[in-house]
Amino acid sequence: MLTPYAAHFDAPAGYLDFARFGPPSRDAVAATARAVEASARATHTTVDELMRAEETARDAAARLAGADAAHTVLLPNASTGLFHAALGLQHGTVLAPRGDFPSNQYPWRRAAELGRAVPRWLEPAPGGGVTPGLVRAALTDDVVALSVSAVDFRTGFRADLAALREVIGPDRLLVVDAIQAFGAAELPWQAADVVIAGGQKWLRAGWSTGFATLSDRALESLQPVLTGWTGVADAGVFDGVEHPPAPDARRWSITNLSPVTAASFAAALDLVERYGVEAIENAIGVRVAELADTVEEFGGRVLSPADPARRAGILSFTVPGHDPAAVARALRGEGVTPTVRADSLRLSPHASTPAEAVERVAAALASVQGARRAG
Question: Which of 114, 238, 249, 345 suits 223 as a labelling partner, its CA being 20 to 30 A distant?
Answer without folding.
Answer: 238
